[in-house]
Specification:
The structure is a homodimer. By secondary structure, chain A is an alpha/beta fold. Chain A folds into three domains: about 5-215, HUPs (Rossmann fold); about 245-320, Tyrosyl-Transfer RNA Synthetase; about 330-400, Structural Genomics Hypothetical 15.5 Kd Protein In mrcA-pckA Intergenic Region, Chain A (Roll). Chain A is about 45% helix and about 15% strand. Chain A is built from 19 helices and 13 strands. Chain A has helices spanning about 5-10, 20-30, 50-65, 75-80, 95-110, 125-130, 135-140, 145-150, 150-160, 165-170, 170-180, 195-205, 245-250, 260-265, 270-280, 285-305, 305-320, 340-345, 355-360, and strands at about 15-20, 35-40, 65-75, 120-125, 185-190, 215, 330-335, 335-340, 365, 370, 380, 385-390, 395-400. Chain A has a six-stranded mixed β-sheet with strand order 1-6-5-2-3-4, sandwiched between helices. A five-stranded mixed β-sheet of chain A has the order 7-13-12-9-10, with helices on one face. The longest helix of chain A is centred in the C-terminal third of the chain and has 20 residues, at about 285-305. The N and C termini of chain A lie far apart (about 75 Å). The mean pLDDT of chain A is about 90. Chains A, B: InterPro entries: aa-tRNA-synth_Ic, Rossmann-like_a/b/a_fold, S4_RNA-bd, S4_RNA-bd_sf, Tyr-tRNA-ligase, Tyr-tRNA-ligase_bac-type. Chains A, B: Belongs to the class-I aminoacyl-tRNA synthetase family. Chains A, B: One of its GO terms (cellular component) is cytosol. Chains A, B: It catalyses: tRNA(Tyr) + L-tyrosine + ATP = L-tyrosyl-tRNA(Tyr) + AMP + diphosphate + H(+). Chains A, B: Pfam families: S4, tRNA-synt_1b.
Chain lengths: ~400, ~400
């Protein structure tokens, strides 16, 4: 058996807080397989590298013989988790829930081992469907209004004058009771779930069971540097992304994120992580090389070293020096000259004038490698002109 | 059929607000027997004249063929109605709930007719015991946190830093859904129940049923003039009080309450009520006579005119002119003189010195009809002395 303290040390690379660390050490020392609660609601999943931070921790524990209990919150999905939602979310049909659950399991299996000994699949409808209303109300009696309202998200909604439906208000109670019902020893969650999982400890203690250990992981910023990775912002690397997409998306992050990403999304040694951070701070080619190493490490983790090598080569081929691709679409323009804005209108007909002006303002437009500051700048069209608009969109403007 | 408008007029004597009056007129006009929700929780009941105001309104409607649905909130009693409670109340056992329910029905039958055609008895466990948790949560989804927190009592608790358990918070939702489940047309409640019953209308509308009419009655002050009639203050006339106790308690009210009591607790014509009010305002013997008439009218309502006459005579015999009773206990004291406090110690051996001093301070002690201000005042015991302590406690102190 691995020394419990070593196990906790290994987890520490990506954990934020551990509530009940002494319990964790003691339970690891007992030699008994721990039951690790991995609770999800059954809305349409698109797991990304951020989610996978927790999954990899669970995977480490699976490799030591501990058991992940993958809890599909099918009942609670019918209720709707308000976490991080400013608005009440729509209710799903049972068929949608089942479909989402299947998709969830598929995605989870990219990281987790799925042999029955280390992965048990449960649904919280198992204990809620047969629970008498009086018993549920008894659970409600174990929690106060003030406890629930202590939750940041509820307070924020109230402060903003937004509504909280009562089923949302009681959601944490249900999620908390789940921990008791499934005999959770440990749960590894994003820090936004800390409140709900502490209610889990509360219920276990109230109902005479040992309280689960709660490990939280820090939430990593999105590809664009924003705090939240979200579908609507499309700013994350999904586990189901192709190796090429993973590689390309990681090459697009701001230099300032390289070290963080290498720290939480790879298993590169920590001194390598630090070196990548320093290189990224320099900018230019060193930062670019650091990103290539980061992208290769992530692709290696999910798809193996061979695929990572292939993608690295493909990327270098496409975005050769100066990041100008070897091949790009050509557009013929039968004029002597045109403003940058006019050229942009031709190559990006779907964008509005104001969007195109904004692109210029953001410094995302270049003509023959020179950044353009003024959308009305006139460009002579005597010979080929290379027009870059956005990070990776290139056009060759050819005199007609 | 009685003209619907006349029915509503008759109710108006003791109603405060009618929510949905147009619906009420229309439903009365339909000729169909209305279902009148009379919901109670099953804590130990001690129904008093205040409760009976609503019961008499229901009785009027029963006499017109409408049906009272007496709803025992056995499920919700297990939850605990927080109305008017500053603290979370203890949970009752099923056996206690059943015993209380029986006692409730006994007391209610003092006013209501109990033939099956006009009295149906239901329990809300009928619909809650078999309700799946998901369905209950669906109901919760129809109500917002802000709606619940709009309730005065919850706001007051929060302002006072007192806890609201979550089962208490959702109590109004359960009480509201009851109205839908039992197909309530009308409910007659104290104004403190208005919030919960409006949630009933909310649910009926949300679930596609016609919303119940809500009639509220004003809450009448207690015998001591305090706003609330409560067991701990022992300041009400219970329906199960003997005729003698009813009579005596009503004689003890402040003059200022005579008109209100006559208005809401009797069927005396309104001009008589006004005359009693004027007489009470005069004070002295006219006020006393007004109270006698009030007491007799209440006893008549519950026990018939014969009993009322008997009690009136008994009261007059006991508390003859000056309210000094014809007969009183005699105590022999073998001393020449004693202080008032010493005499009080002899006749009220169970009261502490400080309680007795307080009695004097309150002006409740008199010697030979003269109010005593100083507990240390010396009283000569040469002949009989009449000692009054409290409103109706008299002793004859006799030289030994």
């Amino acid at each position: 058996m691995i020394e419990p303290r070593l196990v906790v040390e290994r987890l520490r690379r990506t954990t934020d807080t551990v509530i009940g660390e002494a319990d964790l050490l003691e339970r690891l020392a007992s030699g008994r397989p721990l039951r690790i609660k991995y609770g999800v609601d059954c809305t349409a999943p698109d797991l990304h590298l951020g989610h996978a931070v927790n999954l990899w921790l669970m995977r480490q524990l699976q490799d030591l013989g501990h058991q992940v209990v993958f809890l599909l919150g099918d009942l609670t999905t019918r209720v709707g988790d308000p976490t991080g939602r400013t608005e009440t979310r729509p209710v799903l049909t049972p068929a949608q829930i089942e479909e989402n659950a299947r998709s969830f399991l598929d995605q989870v299996s990219i990281v987790l081992r799925t042999d029955l000994e280390v992965l048990e699949v449960r649904r919280n409808s198992e204990w809620y469907d047969g629970m008498p209303v009086a018993e549920l109300l008894g659970l409600f009696g174990q929690v106060t209004h003030a406890q629930l309202m202590a939750r940041d998200m509820f307070r924020e909604r109230v402060a903003a004058g937004r509504e909280i439906a009562v089923h949302e208000l009681v959601y944490p109670v249900l999620q908390g009771y789940d921990s008791f019902a499934m005999r959770s020893d440990l749960t590894i969650v994003g820090s936004d779930q800390l409140f709900n999982e502490q209610l889990g400890r509360h219920f276990q203690q109230r109902l005479g069971a040992p309280p689960q250990v709660v490990v939280t992981t820090t939430i990593t910023p999105g590809l664009d540097g924003r705090a939240k990775q979200s579908k609507s912002l499309n700013n994350y690397v999904a586990l189901t992304d192709t190796p090429r997409d993973k590689f390309g998306k990681l090459m697009s992050i701001p230099d300032s994120l390289v070290e963080t990403y290498a720290h939480v999304y790879t298993e590169l040694p920590l001194d390598t992580v630090a070196a990548l951070g320093s290189a990224a701070a320099v900018g230019g080619p060193p930062a670019r090389d650091a990103k290539l190493q980061l992208a290769a490490a992530v692709v290696t983790r999910y798809h193996g070293a061979g695929t990572a090598r292939t993608e690295l080569e493909a990327f270098n081929r496409t975005f050769s020096d100066g990041q100008q691709p070897a091949e790009m679409p050509e557009v013929s323009v039968a004029r002597q000259a045109a403003t940058v804005l006019e050229l942009l209108r031709i190559v990006r007909p779907d964008d509005s004038r104001s969007e195109l002006r904004r692109l210029v303002r953001q410094g995302a437009v270049a003509v023959d490698g020179q950044r353009v500051d003024d959308p009305d700048q006139v460009v002579a069209l005597a010979a080929d002109v290379l027009l870059r608009s956005g990070r990776r969109t290139w056009h060759r403007i050819r005199p007609a």
